[in-house]
Amino acid sequence: MPQSIPGSGTTDMTETNFLLAEFCRNRLALIGAVIIGIIVLCAIFAPLIAPFDPAEQNLRERLQTPSIQHPFGTDDLGRDIFSRVVFGSRISLSIGICVVGITALFGTILGLLSGYGGRAIDEVIMRFVDIMLAFPSIILALIIAGLLGPGVVNVIIALSLTQWPAYTRLVRGMTLSMKEKEFVEAARALGASDTYILRKHILLNASNPIIVLATMDIAQTIIFAAALSFLGLGIQPPTPEWGSMLKAGIPYLRSATYITFFPGILLMLTVLAFNFIGDGIRDTLDPHTKEMTLVK
Amino acid sequence: TDAGQTGPSEQVLTIGMSTDVPLWQNSNFPGGDGRFVWSQIYETLVRVDTDLNIEPGLATSWDTPDDGKTWFFYLRDGVIFHDGTPLNADAVVYSYNENSYVRAQGALQTIASVEAVDDLTVKFVMKRPQPLPLYLTHVAWPVVSPTCVDSNGNFIKPIGTGPYAFESHTKAQQVVLTKNENYWGTAPTLDMVIFKVIPEASTRVMALETGEVDMIIKVPESDCIRLENTPGITVSRKVSTFTDFLQFNTKTSPFDDIRVRKAVAYAIDTEEMSETILEGIGIAARGRPYSPVMLYSNPDLALYSQDPAKSRQLLEEAGWTLSGTDTIRKKDGRELKVSILVGRGVWAARHIQMAEAAQSYLSDVGMGLEVKVLEDGALNQLESAGDFGMILRSGYFVWGPYPRHFWLHSSQYPNSHYQNEEYDRIATAADTTGDETRQKELYYQLQDMVIEDLPAFYLIHEEKIVATNDHIQGYTITSEDPWLNLAGITVR
Amino acid sequence: MALIEIKNLNVHFYSRNDIVKANNGVDLSIGENEIVGLIGETGCGKTILGRAIMRLLSPNVSLEGSILYLGRNILDLTQQEIQAIRGREIGMILQNPAASLNPVLPVGEQVAEVFRCHLGNSVAEAEQKAKGLFEQVGIDPARMKEYPHQFSGGMKQRVMIAIGLAATPKLLIADEPTKGLDKERKWQIITLMSDLIRKRSVSMLLITHDLEIAEAICDRIAVMYAGEIIEIGRTADIMQRTLHSTTHPYANALIHALPKYGMMPIPGEIPSLSSLPSGCRFHPRCAERREDCSQVHPEMREIQDNHLVRCLYRGVSNEHP
Amino acid sequence: MSILEVRNLRKVFTSGIFKKTTITALDGVTFSLKRGSTLGILGSSGSGKSTLARSLLRLIEPTSGQILMMGQDVTHVPHHSLGWLPQKIQIIFQNPESSLNPRMRIYDAIAEPLRIHSICTGDEEEDHILDLIGRVNLNPELLFRYPFELSGGQLQRVVIARILALEPECIVADEPTSMLDASVQAQILNIMKDLQESRGISFIFISHDRDVVEWMSDQIAVMEHGKLVEWI
Amino acid sequence: MYAYIVKRLALVFLVMSGVTVITFGAMYLAPGDPAEIIATARYGQDLTPGQIEWVRSTEHLDDPVYIQYLTWLNHIIRLDLGRSLITFDDVAEEIAVRFPTTLTLALASLILSLCIGIPVGIISALHKNAFLDYTTTSIALLGVSMPNFWLGLILIWFFSLYLRVLPSFGSGGISHLILPAVTLGASMAAITMRLMRSSMLDVMGQEYIATARAKGLDKRTVLFRHALKNALLPVITFSGLQLGFLLGGTVIVETIFAWPGIGKLLVDSIYARDYSMIQGCVLLIGLLFAITNLAIDLLYASIDPRIRYDRHD
Ligand SMILES: Nc1ncnc2c1ncn2[C@@H]1O[C@H](COP(=O)(O)OP(=O)(O)OP(=O)(O)O)[C@@H](O)[C@H]1O
Ligand SMILES: Nc1ncnc2c1ncn2[C@@H]1O[C@H](COP(=O)(O)OP(=O)(O)OP(=O)(O)O)[C@@H](O)[C@H]1O
Ligand SMILES: [Mg+2]
Ligand SMILES: [Mg+2]
């Protein structure tokens, strides 16, 4: 177990390295990172890993149970489920990460503005958030799919446009309580600008709940995307994507369970992994958490 | 009968259907599965039997003195509506009045007037000759009682002459019908029929298996074989009038070129499609537009068989060539990529599979296909704008045995993307003659033309599937889709 | 017989990187009706000692030694047994009244609860008793329905005192009951507490930074440094002798840091409890350190009746000049 | 010459949007502070000491009156053109734990003013910080810890160190030691005194502990209900 | 406080007009010719151009959007939600029939998620980083990652078909409610559980919990009287948001369980461009959402005495 707390000059460990080391010490987080790492690698090297073209059909070999040749079996059109799951990681991960990235960023900025910018701005943003929350998001998805045509990018846009208010609410609450803190006042006394304070003080302290929300959200987003395709607005066939694979497997839920089983498992693993990572990041960034492993 | 209470000896049939009955007035179209319910309450002047043969309905006979320009229907005597109102010519005149949606619809806009000649004789005057009895078999165009509405014209409740009378309707949940003791025909065998609304197909199937419903309509193909092998469940299947087809946009490249359309027809193996993804349910159409159960369907039509080599050759001839390691053909630097639109709706599940299969067949011959599953509005928009290559559709005909297209026809359907004067002329001629031999001849010509000019490529003649459990005996399935045949059913 | 007798108590916290040795070999006893003051610099382990007696420490702790309460070792008690002792036999006033009152419960309720829990009083009885207690600590009982945020710091502190004294425990551990208060209020509270304590014959462990207060009410004073008690004795002895540099150099320096005595800071840094200096814990900062101070860890030595000091030289040199 | 002059400063807090209530926290405060000297302000809780301290740095906008910083009126200058003010006047708060961001390491907390005002380049930063903590006698070992890992006295020295980075001419200390124990208090106050001697910094020293104020100040004012009522 | 409620209710109107304006604008932007879609829904596929034009003119679809909106608003002010453009049913009546079922389901799943999420969250917090914590956390995450269209069917399969203990579809008694409520509640319960866990951990570390223990209170009292109330605050906020979502976002579960609720009505209306029905649903959902939020805020204030809405700064 590494011992030294870095002192100035005595160690060449940079801040990032230090945090990284901290993070790696959290075993679950490490497992999560490894799982995500593997999935990301699968996504990047999908063409090398997948034994078949994910869109290649073989109607004569449809609905085959898992075998050596088709480790996850084949689907209703005789496509190799393993290859589809591997390629599907690209789409699913991009949707999850992009949407959460965009909404977390956007929602956070608006939340900061709302919480820090004074009553007028706050009222305007919060009422807008209320409107967005009360507005059925399917209408928005419908318009976007209609105006831009269906497809991955548009699913991302549609979901992003509807998901941000949660972050805004959260961050606003944090900002409101944070800006009353004395250390913020101290920073103002030092001459820090508002943007500096928002960035360095408020955001840093609000990051825990944002991270927790975001990691939970990645899974929700992938599922929402599938739900959109349930309503005819989502990702277009034959694009392999976990959510739509689950959806397409529904008619075969009882006769060929493996069609939904494997994308389902992958989805679950991803969710688990992101949550582990989220917990890990939170613990790493939070100076108070020191893993209580008994040394004795 | 007291509807709320069912004694042990009472015959109650519970049916699971996919949509609610949107409304009961004849001012609007009863969309979705509502027509299955309508067909128990309301009846038509002319009927079809389970094999689509014409037979008398509320009219015992009909004739046309002038080759289809004027039609006289002679009503059955002694028939009364559920509320005791007698069925007479006035009721028929009321049912087909100018404000009924029947008169506004494309197919029957040709009716000029409807008059009562005497108590039991109705006269339909047409704007042009038309085989009206065939049209009037449509369950959505029935005879309704004038007492359905009050004196202010406000709708009260559905009143027809059918074997079952309307009892109650709980929106989005169920419709309850009770036996019509005064039914003019063979006495109905059930005391009560309950239609339950279960939108999700998988749930419907499981509700049948648990016995919560005794009969389900619209069984998904993927469950069909399994259900057939499930003890205690009987699956009834019959080829219906519905056919799935690929409608081409013949006005723009590449499908403005007949060779490219044909290349599609040669590339696709509709037999394999029906054998595999549809689990052997339905008949491979191989281009044949009219389902074999239809009147005038030509059994000897020269059909397409899959021939990828020929398909490739046709594409080459049309100038779409492959070079190097390309997988998609090109012409003048443009790739051979087209979109196929699929609607979101009851057919979506099978259509998406079929579209994906088509995608694979076509990519084998070097054509790229982009599947777009769309909500109706979006599909509608692309269709009106002509911004598509193909549309995968189902249906297409006037219900009943009578094969009148209304979507290819350029002069009738506003969004048709097929313009062929000859086709329109023959179609109109076939629709205006009352002479059956002449009609047959003209419809045979039309079928040849569809095969030849390929405005659309017909894939699968669908089968209607109804599953029942052991409680039910004596069910006979019909060919016609919106009609549910409950005659002679008994519940154990 | 001593009410509580702490023997060789070691309280160590295990954290990911290091072990925080918050209390090391602490020996302390408190007799009946006695007020013992515990003083020492920030972070030297005073609160930890108090909380160790109550067994109120975070789970990453290891406790060694014994805390005998009327002959029973608190550290061996079961959860139920310690629960029965907390509040009823030993009361505690936690350090930070602002954070130590539940923000969502009315203050009166938080006091009355103790009666219900330990004396089995009915709701009405408990309220009645709480009312009496509020009057005793000088808060209008009409304000019992209010919530902590409606109370000023001094009032909250008084509520904490009321909670600590509610079940008339035999021992009260008061952790800096006057921190952050202005002078008047401070004395108000201290007088109040010592009155109540004397009236009810309660013993007290008073943890404080404020030497004046300690001097005013304590019978004995213990001085703590880096997790160890380095000097303990009667108040007068400690105050007088240390003022005249006759006992532990740290205690001496602490007194000289008061404005009254010249505001002389102790040079150097408080040692980290996870890497304690060898030998005498104070030697790096000690003006009088000698060579072996850094090697030999001094034991407590009685330099006078009931006056013990942990220094190799002080006291010794006194007696043998 | 006086470094800071305050004329007739008033601050009225209004609160509530339906029922307006007003509290006059400062009620015509006037004083001037000579360069290099210390003004002690005594007063009981709620008398307006902290309000005065915050107003001087424009952390609170005074309702009326004037604040002259080295002869220049800073009362109504907009905030964005007040960039130089932090380099002239600084504040030490009562509770060192809450005046440092709990998620920021000590190093970054001290580097903050350097970075905000671009006082030095990135390479020089470390040396600069070592120099600063040297002035307040802080062990460099502590630089990479988080605030909760430090004692109160250490934290207050960190606060002072980061303020010194700006080389202020005047420091307002708002009860800087009331949360600390006697020896640490002595340490902090001695550091402040040393700074005054070595750098000629002026102080406004706020406390309710008469002994401490007397020890620190050249001149003492007593505040009551927002007014300076008595000069000692 | 009353002044605050009045002010909030005034804002509800603001929000509602916002929601309806956006809905109107959005539906205007939605693809396709509304007249044609409405006509198809009314008269079937065999349309004539005349019918489309008839719909367009009788339903005033050719008016500029803002005129359409103002007309609608004009009716609303007179408490007239209008009639469906497709079935001509009275919108208010239709919603009145559908809404109670939706509310039942929404409340049931919310209660279910709270009943599962809160205790499990507490257990998990009390056993932080122990086996029990990891297991409950993993099960919770399982709940989040199971799409409800999948979970719903699996539940029907297992409980209705295999065990034959619960009905597979429809609404009615409690037995009908269980499966859809579980389906909807599962992922919510998971999030509630995670939230409860972290907030419980925060609270358990607070000094006032130490005080409670120092008083000698038994574990249960410390937990339920002292910790729970504080730890519940974030969960309450979240539940308020969730209830809003449940009122409008349950279409998938409603479809699977043939549950006659407002979610499916809304989606079907959207597809059919049944403007008056859409507006009616949106209005109701929005109103409920706003009122729920107000109720949550008031509940919040009643739990946490520090929160006062009638004072600012
Ligand atoms: N749970 C814990 N884990 C690790 N270290 C801890 C824990 N609790 C306290 N400590 C450490 O133990 C030491 C003693 O703390 P304690 O609170 O007893 O000091 P104190 O003497 O009461 O100081 P103060 O006068 O500031 O209250 C401190 O250095 C503190 O950081
Ligand atoms: N933001 C504010 N809004 C309303 N009133 C305020 C505000 N800040 C301070 N006050 C009020 O102004 C008065 C003076 O407060 P201030 O904080 O200056 O007192 P103080 O002398 O520093 O007291 P203490 O010794 O307790 O720190 C108090 O009555 C306080 O309630
Ligand atoms: Mg302490
Ligand atoms: Mg103050």
From TrEMBL, chain A:
Q: Indicate the segments forming the ABC transmembrane type-1 domain, all copies.
A: 89-278
- Determine if Calcium is one of this entry's keywords: no
Provide the protein's localization.
Cell membrane
Query: What membrane topology is given?
Result: Multi-pass membrane protein
Q: Which GO terms describe its cellular component?
A: plasma membrane
What transmembrane ranges does the database entry give? 28-50, 91-113, 210-235, 255-277
Q: Does the keyword RNA-binding apply?
A: no
Q: Which UniProt keywords apply?
A: Cell membrane, Membrane, Transmembrane, Transmembrane helix, Transport
Q: Which NCBIfam families match?
A: Opp2C
Family from the record: Belongs to the binding-protein-dependent transport system permease family. OppBC subfamily.
What is the name of this protein? ABC transporter permease
Taxonomically, what lineage is the organism? Answer: Archaea, Methanobacteriati, Methanobacteriota, Stenosarchaea group, Methanomicrobia
UniProtKB/TrEMBL annotation, chain C:
Residue ranges of every copy of the ABC transporter domain listed in the record: 6-251
Q: Which PROSITE patterns match?
A: ABC_TRANSPORTER_1, ABC_TRANSPORTER_2
Q: What catalytic activity is recorded? A: Ni(2+)(out) + ATP + H2O = Ni(2+)(in) + ADP + phosphate + H(+)
Q: Mind naming one GO cellular-component term on file for this protein?
A: plasma membrane
Any idea which GO molecular function terms this record carries? Answer: ABC-type nickel transporter activity; ATP binding
- Give the InterPro entries listed for this entry: AAA+_ATPase, ABC_Ni/Peptide_Import, ABC_transporter-like_ATP-bd, ABC_transporter-like_CS, Oligopep_ABC_C, P-loop_NTPase
The cellular location(s) given in this protein's UniProt record come to: Cell membrane
SUPFAM superfamilies, alphabetized: P-loop containing nucleoside triphosphate hydrolases
Query: Which keywords, in A-to-Z order, does the entry hold?
Result: ATP-binding, Cell membrane, Ion transport, Membrane, Nucleotide-binding, Translocase, Transport
* UniProt-listed CDD domains: ABC_NikE_OppD_transporters
Q: How does the protein's chain sit in the membrane according to the entry?
A: Peripheral membrane protein
Q: What is its EC number?
A: 7.2.2.11
Nucleotide-binding as a keyword of this entry, yes or no, is yes
One Pfam family, short name: ABC_tran
Q: How does it assemble?
A: The complex is composed of two ATP-binding proteins (NikD and NikE), two transmembrane proteins (NikB and NikC) and a solute-binding protein (NikA).
What the entry lists under PANTHER family is as follows: NICKEL ABC TRANSPORTER, ATP-BINDING PROTEIN, OLIGOPEPTIDE TRANSPORT ATP-BINDING PROTEIN APPD
Protein's name in the database: Nickel import system ATP-binding protein NikD
Organism listed in the record:
Methanocalculus taiwanensis
Automatic annotation (TrEMBL), chain D:
What's a Pfam family in this record?
ABC_tran
ABC transporter domain span: 4-232
Tell whether tRNA-binding is among the UniProt keywords: no
In which family does this protein belong, per the annotation? Belongs to the ABC transporter superfamily.
Gene3D superfamilies recorded: P-loop containing nucleotide triphosphate hydrolases
Keyword annotations from UniProtKB, A to Z? ATP-binding, Nucleotide-binding, Transport
Which Gene Ontology BP annotations are present? Answer: transmembrane transport
Gene Ontology MF annotations: ATP binding
Q: What is this protein called?
A: ABC transporter ATP-binding protein
Automatic annotation (TrEMBL), chain E:
What GO cellular-component annotations does this UniProt entry give?
plasma membrane
Q: Where in the cell is it found?
A: Cell membrane
Q: Where is the ABC transmembrane type-1 domain?
A: 99-300
TM annotation in the entry:
9-30, 105-127, 139-162, 174-196, 231-257, 277-301
Q: Which CDD domains match?
A: TM_PBP2
Superkingdom of this protein's organism: Archaea
Database matches in PROSITE patterns: ABC_TM1 (PS50928)
What keywords tag this UniProt record?
Answer: Cell membrane, Ion transport, Membrane, Nickel, Transmembrane, Transmembrane helix, Transport
Keyword Transport annotated: yes
Membrane topology qualifier: Multi-pass membrane protein
Q: Which GO terms describe its biological process?
A: monoatomic ion transport
Protein family:
Belongs to the binding-protein-dependent transport system permease family. OppBC subfamily.
Q: What name does this protein carry?
A: ABC transporter permease
